[in-house]
Design a protein that fits this description.
The chain has 250 residues and is an alpha+beta fold. The longest helix has 21 residues. Helices cover 18% and strands 57% of the residues. It has one domain. An eight-stranded antiparallel beta barrel has the order 1-2-3-4-6-7-8-11.
Length: 250
């Protein structure tokens, strides 16, 4: 199932971004068309599943791969995860976690795949509040890591004895980072149960921002580290759709 989700998101990244932009514009228009006065204080929370795409720069790593005859990897990954936040007087506190699923590339001799994950403690503030709509900036503090697995395709036809004689048919390079998440979120209540005291129901939204990774670790292979690694990191912009539920009290 996750394979087909990943394949769909990779093949349709640009159309999905356009869809998110259209959704954001329509939702904003609906929000400003509301005649209700925004509440001075807001309490509540939401939980959600999120899916999107993270754009990363693997150019330095790909240059090293090309010199070694290894296929390049794509500059980006599908992200899947979830999270939630609590709202207290417009202040927002919560957390989220995401897995990164990269595509697989191959040539005659090698195949390469990459993946990773990250988690953040988030804090924010609601700058625009309407009965069915909220907009808020987010600062997230956390960490993450990713790995690149290189597989010798010629080993696929090797005998058991050949594998035992030369077991190093696969190498997994990994790296970890302290990370910051700078983003803006917009949530829209749909099919909502709305009263004078609050709003609750199904939530759809969008998150867009930039992930800043500080490379605190060197490239590692098992227990060994390399001091001559590339400057590749998982820093870069991202965009995500969220689907979930929750409620707000005024």
């Amino acid at each position: 199932m996750f394979y087909y989700i990943k394949k769909y998101l990779i093949m349709n990244a640009k159309p999905l971004i356009m869809l998110v932009m259209i959704f954001s514009f329509v939702a904003t228009s609906q929000a400003f068309s509301q005649s209700d006065e925004p509440p001075a204080k807001v309490y509540g929370g939401i939980g959600y599943f999120q899916a999107g795409y993270s754009f990363m720069d693997f150019n330095d790593l790909n240059n090293a791969f090309v010199q070694a005859g290894i296929p390049e990897i794509n500059n980006g990954s599908v992200s899947l995860g979830g999270g939630g936040h609590y709202i207290f007087r417009r202040f927002l506190i919560g957390g989220e976690g995401n897995g990164l699923i990269g595509s697989r590339t191959a040539n005659e001799n090698f195949s390469v795949r990459h993946s990773g994950g990250m988690g953040f403690f988030n804090a924010g503030y609601i700058v625009l509040q309407r009965p069915l709509y909220t907009v808020y900036p987010i600062l997230g503090i956390g960490g993450g890591g990713y790995s690149v697995t290189i597989i010798d395709r010629n080993a696929a036809t090797a005998s058991l004895q050949e594998v035992l004689d030369n077991p190093h048919q696969q190498a997994e390079l990994s790296k970890g980072s302290f990370m910051l998440n700078f983003s803006v979120g917009a949530d829209l209540f749909v099919f909502a149960d709305r009263t004078q005291q609050g709003t609750g129901g199904f939530v759809v939204g969008v998150r867009a921002g930039y992930l800043l990774a500080f490379d605190t670790d060197e490239w590692r292979l098992d227990d060994y580290s390399f001091t001559d690694g590339t400057n590749t990191s998982i820093s870069g912009p991202f965009i995500r759709l969220i689907i979930g539920g929750g409620g707000l009290l005024y």
